[in-house]
Amino acid sequence: GAGVFTYDPGFTSTAACKSTITFIDGDKGELLHRGYPIDQLASKSHYLEVCYLLLYGDLPTAKQLEDFESRVTNHTMLHEQMQYFFRGFRRDAHPMAIMVGVVGAMSAFYHDSTDITDPWQREVASIRLIAKMPTIAAWAYKYHVGQPFVYPRNDLDYASNFLRMCFAVPAEEYVVDPILSRAMDRIFTLHADHEQNASTSTVRLASSSGANPFACIAAGIACLWGPAHGGANQACLEMLKEIGTVDKIPEFIARAKDKNDPFRLMGFGHRVYKNFDPRATVMKQSADEVLDLMGIEDNPVLQVAKELEKQALEDPYFHDKKLFPNVDFYSGIILEAMGFPTSMFTPIFALSRTVGWISQWKEQLSDPEMKIGRPRQLYVGETLRDYVDIENR
Ligand code: SDX
After folding, report:
1. Could you tell me which residues come within 8 angstroms of residue 318 by beta carbon, excluding any fewer than 6 positions away?
2. Which end of the chain, N or C, is less surrounded by CB atoms within 10 Å?
3. What is the pLDDT of residue 299?
4. 268 CB less than 6 Å from ligand 1?
5. Distance of CA 144 to the CA centre of its chain
């Protein structure tokens, strides 16, 4: 491409892999997908077009996009028998537990797209996963709240289909608000891929053994669930509610700075960003838009979030350690305003990130030097010693 990035040799020697998909400059707070900045994609593109970009390396022509969207639309249904997987869980099962189980089980239903040596099967698996994740996430939610499953429809766009599958009930039709659908689509785009984060590295490691794509994505979902990673959006909203009012903020900031207190400001800090996470900036704008639309201008949680951000950024501890809001800081506020419970925040992150995992999985498989992941260790345990019989211990 036009811009060829060169890395400091030291970095290259520690890099997990070479990739052409996503570039992050943590110091500048820059995020590029195939060279396109995330703020331009979030404002000018839409999720399925970004999926095409991540999967195939460039923005599609109108015809390419139409074909791609048609293929995704026509794969949104789940094998009818998969409903029994959902029904096997307790009603109070976390939707992420259901998603890990159902996605892993897909290899038992779609075994004609599990042979990773067949490029066509890899392509079919990719489309199936992107197409079916909204149905799986929506049905995990419906099962959780005790409502009947709502089937996808081919006359709705990707985000509208997901919102309708979540919120429509047989008793009355759910009319998707285009502004909400746009906000939902933007959240999908902002979470689509993020270089070699923990869950993507998990998918790459699993794929290096030749595991089928559904098993690899299930592994990524399991890793994303953790509160230090994708689970942070749920943990952040719960933290903002625990803070409750602006006057409680100093107490929580003091706790976050206290070395003896395990409390962290959820939605703050990042392994790579030492500047604003560009996704958080777009998310904050979106939060204002969606809450205005919902007529929740003076949302107390949003007020606490904005004041917490302001006070933390003015605090030398956060400033000196270069801790800024990340993608998870505002997303929960938007999702709750849309009507989602906190337990659905990470499933929505997983749904969005599936294209990133799949793109990186395909790149890993196309790497001629790909070997099974086998990290070494620094052994610091006992040196050689002989067995001691129990009577002599
Ligand atoms: C995601 O990798 C990705 O790309 C992930 C992600 C993606 O799109 O895939 O971006 C999504 O996972 C975003 C991160 C979501 N997690 C959270 O918001 C949880 C809260 N954040 C922290 O747990 C933490 O910031 C991490 C885990 C994200 C990063 O931890 P690090 O690697 O320890 O961060 P650091 O090295 O920059 O920390 C520097 C210092 C440390 O203190 P010292 O050891 O130097 O004394 O800052 C401290 C940290 O303890 N610190 C925090 C803090 N985050 C780091 N102190 C208080 N609150 C925080 N949130």
Report:
1. 265, 268, 312, 324
2. C
3. 85
4. yes
5. 20
